[in-house]
Amino acid sequence: MDDHTLRVTLDNPTPFFLGLCATTPLFPEYLPCVEKWGDDWIKPGHLIGNGAYQLDAWRINDRVRLVKNPYYWDIAHVHMNTVDALPISRGTTAINFYADGQADLLMDKGLVPPTLMGDLRKRPDFHSAPFLGTYFLRFNLTHAAFKDPRVRRAFALVIDKHLIVDKITRGGEIPATSFVPPGAAGYQPPPGMQRDPDEARRLLAEAGYPGGKNFPLITYLYSEGELNEAIAVELQSMIHQELGINISLQRQEWKVYLNSMSNLDYDMARSSWVGDYDDPNTFLDMFVSGGGNNETGFANPQYDQLIASAAAQVDQSKRFDIFRQAEHMLVTDQAPICPLYYYVGIQLYNGARLAGMSANLLDDHPLKAMYWKDTTSSP
Fold it and tell me: FRET partner for 109 with CA separation of 20 to 30 A, picked from 44, 174, 207, 345?
């Protein structure tokens, strides 16, 4: 092999290997830069990468500025000279920036105020399409309230997912009965639980909490955002109405929220996952015992064995059968999580001017592919 060739030997069949190579954790980094600057290697003037853009400035609460990388191998096809990313967390603020022309592209579903969704969907600058992402709830199995799977199933069985997508999200989302969105690499998930309040109340009583009596005080944790807020309030109402259980709501700033999730400092919480590559494995291997993205306290040797067996299986049909067994355990049998709906990717932009955006399963929109149709007014 010459200096530019890398040979990789895999321990198991990995049909998603090429997709895995395109994920962020496998991006190359320049080691001398890391060694020289330590934790400051990611700052402007220090960061060295091989992408289409270089980090020019990072102004806290203002913007991240990217400039075209003159050393990029395909620079002839990089059309934007400068790109500013604006760190906006409030949906109304983001919409106002876009409406006033201070932003050209809005591409975060969480930044579209739910109250405006109905009107925005009628506009020509509104663009949406399904992708591999699921909005779901996590239960903390290390806390007394959710140690019993009957309790977790009871909570899942009273949630009206159709009401959530029809009344709150309103972006064309589909209620989720599985964690893996249907169609990932051709995979079809097993049927999950359907809403059944009577069965939920029976399970809760069987677990020792008839009518919610003596159930521990619990808190629902969620991150900032109008959509998350609206869903939290609706879940609080549903669970109280059907199970007689009171839930307090706790909203946290994003970094604090992530820290709470990582430390299992919550009872139940909102969460979401977007596939890193087009395969059910990117969803299901999250919940192996001790997995870095597990964050539920769920640890089941049988589940771990199923995921390991799927990794060693060459036959795709048999591999998917194993995944279906694992997903049934995850969503229906043990239920450390409760899927709510499958995401749709949403962007706001003027398609008569901005081009290079296209719907795809990973909702991935590389900046290098974007360009202005009207070059005379390009920023």
Answer: 44
